[in-house]
Amino acid sequence: MPRTSRRNLLFGTAAVSAGALLTACTSNEPRNAAPGTDDAVGNAPADDKPGAPVTIGFAGPQADHGWLNAINENAKRRAEKYSEVTLEITEGSNDTAAQIGQIQTLINKKVDVLVILPADGKALTQVGLQAMKAGIPVINLDRVFASPQAYRCWIGGDNYGMGLNAGRYIGEQLKDKPGAKVVELAGLDNLELTKQRTQGFDDALKNYPNITKVARQAAEFTVESGQAKMAQLLQAQQRFDALWNHDDDQGVGALRAIQQAGRDDFLMVGGAGAKSAMDAIKAGDGVLKATVLYPPTMAASAIDLARALGQKKGVGGMSELEIPASITLYSAVVTKENVDEYLPTGFN
To answer: Domain named Periplasmic binding protein: which ranges (predicted)?
Structure first.
């Protein structure tokens, strides 16, 4: 998952998918999909009309996490919508050297456009530069390269915004409760994204002087770590009013620990937008009341952008002839009131 820069444009709102931001990469008349249909996952293609043939190389990390797997699936499904698009997809790897080799293979194949979600943005900057120098435009997906010269367009999520909106939601729920206490189950602390999510959360809570964050525990974005670290939090904190968990995958484990402890005296907010979390929110019979999106549909939008680049077209709905240099997606809060709108984008 991502490292996000605050300099990126905060672009649009999170509708049914990230693809909604691009409503028509090559057309001014977007096609809307009904919720629950195939097109609702990753939203409708930007333009059904076939254009010039485009070969898109897609290189992502190993899909060893629900969100990462959803990234790959969104890219594949979007490419299948376009008869003129050929998708050359790599196996995916969390090993930097292996992913560099995979991308160099795509460069040697002379694909028209590259979409890259780097395992490590800084470490893969040079191969991004290599592609750009070879005349292959790069869509840098989520984890940003160290140099803007390594990509033509960056599209990704807003980690600071995730924390900010989680904090605002919890703040509004607890604003009338004197001496309210909250705890935080973070992700990997050595990742910049985790620090950004925590910073956003802390900044939001500054607006609610009645609320104090009494504990924070870092997990590892896995079910097992979520369960273990949540159990520690529950043991250490006999009373609190809200929990923000950074990641819905580790949230599965956190919910197991909560159930085993027999606790239901607080509300929980998740992160990312897993289907399991949305199902629990819709059921409304547990502590999980909301999740803050980090939309994997950004991969579908990256394919739209790559297709537009390959066909030398801009983004419909915008006056400019070229696609933007960067797009930061909005971190919407999914609650019982709006879950049906977002449920089609939930990932396993």
So the answer is: 56-312
Residue 201 has pLDDT above 60, yes or no: yes
Q: Is 188 exposed, middle or buried (0-12, 13-18, 19+ CB in 10 A)?
A: middle
Task: Report d(CA 74, CA 302) in Å as an integer.
Answer: 10
SS3 call for 155: strand
pLDDT tens digits for 298-312?
999 999 999 999 999
What is d(CA 120, CA 179) in angstroms, rounded to the nearest whole number? 41
Q: Can you tell me whether residue 270 is helix, strand or coil?
A: strand
Distance CA 345, CA 257 (A): 27
Determine the residue type at 137: P
Q: Does the pLDDT at position 43 exceed 60? A: no
**pTM > 0.70:** yes
Any idea what the CATH number is for the domain that residue 240 is in? 3.40.50.2300
For residue 297, the 8-state DSSP code is T
Helices (H), 184-334: 192-205, 223-236, 248-261, 275-283, 298-310
Show Cβ contacts of residue 113 under 8 Å, excluding neighbours closer than 6 positions.
54, 55, 56, 57, 136, 137, 138, 139, 306, 307, 309, 310
Tell which wins on pLDDT, 213 or 48. Answer: 213
The CA distances from residue 62 to 1, 67, 303, in Å, are: 11, 11, 19
Instruction: Indicate if 24 and 152 belong to the same structural domain.
Output: yes
For residue 71, count CB atoms less than 10 angstroms from its CB and return exposed for 0-12, middle for 13-18, buried for 19 or more.
Answer: buried
- Alpha-carbon 138 to chain mean position: 19
Looking at the fold, whether 193 and 164 belong to one and the same domain comes out as yes
Other CB atoms within 10 Å distance of the CB of residue 131: 24
DSSP letter string over 162-181? HHHHHHHHHHHHHTTSTTEE
